[in-house]
Amino acid sequence: MQEKQLKYRDFPVSVIMDVPFSKLSLTETEEYLTRRILSGKTTHVVTANPEILMYANNSPEYKGILQSADMVVPDGIGVVYASRLRNDPVTERVAGYDLLHRLMSQADQHQLKVYLLGANDEVNRLAFERLANDYPNAIFVGRHHGYFKDGSDIEAMILNDIAEKKPDILFVALGFPRQELWISKHQPQLKIPLVMGVGGSFDVLSGKVKRAPVIWQKLGLEWLYRLISMPSRWRRMMVLPQFLIKEVLRKLKN
């Protein structure tokens, strides 16, 4: 992709497989997004990993959504390695789960309104209760599970509820690619200051899924911990070596 084709961003990016990843650190990302929320600017944040990139590589529609998102953060150690192979490194991995908590800290500080959408009803409720307990000054205006059909009456009800509640932050846990497709379709009408797809974060918040210990995270082995904990994910995890091999071959060719 030529640079002129990229949407203008007021922060540095590293382009990987035609997708512009933010080079901001976790703290810088938190500060940047907080300024946008408080100023009322609408922002779509994508937390992308190698699995998402490989999917986007075969889906022009989905890749277009990633390219037009206001910010794509490197949520995956494979993305960090790929940026280094391209001699254009991102600063660090910015995990969606960590960014969610940073944004909730800001919601607590500034008494921002928060809405949770996605996962099943029990997981959604438990995640809602966990966040409400941890961030008592944030204003939780609504929640709804993600088991609805696009274009259904239930979806229309959810959209009306969100529009009426006017949250400052909407976390969407519908899983990729659905959550990005859903946000891209509805954000222009909702005009929420910040919308972010958070994948399986509600499962971790609810206690249904345990996150890797910090030492595994620091070593960049969170993916391996998840594989050991959930062997059924092995097919999905195969995307990481495929992605890195693709990047190594690209570098050797160049």
TrEMBL record:
Catalytic activity, reaction form: UDP-N-acetyl-alpha-D-mannosamine + N-acetyl-alpha-D-glucosaminyl-di-trans,octa-cis-undecaprenyl diphosphate = N-acetyl-beta-D-mannosaminyl-(1->4)-N-acetyl-alpha-D-glucosaminyl di-trans,octa-cis-undecaprenyl diphosphate + UDP + H(+)
Keywords (A to Z) from UniProt: Cell wall biogenesis/degradation, Glycosyltransferase, Teichoic acid biosynthesis, Transferase
Molecular-function GO terms, alphabetical: N-acetylglucosaminyldiphosphoundecaprenol N-acetyl-beta-D-mannosaminyltransferase activity
Pathway: Cell wall biogenesis; teichoic acid biosynthesis
EC number(s) reported in the record: 2.4.1.187
Enzyme class: transferase
One biological process term in Gene Ontology: teichoic acid biosynthetic process
Listed InterPro entries: TagA_TarA, WecG_TagA_CpsF
Key word Glycosyltransferase present: yes
Job description of the protein: Catalyzes the conversion of GlcNAc-PP-undecaprenol into ManNAc-GlcNAc-PP-undecaprenol, the first committed lipid intermediate in the de novo synthesis of teichoic acid.
Family listed: Belongs to the glycosyltransferase 26 family. TagA/TarA subfamily.
HAMAP family for the chain: TagA_TarA (MF_02070)
Name of the protein described by the UniProt record: N-acetylglucosaminyldiphosphoundecaprenol N-acetyl-beta-D-mannosaminyltransferase
UniProt organism field: Vulcanibacillus modesticaldus
Lineage: Bacteria, Bacillati, Bacillota, Bacilli, Bacillales
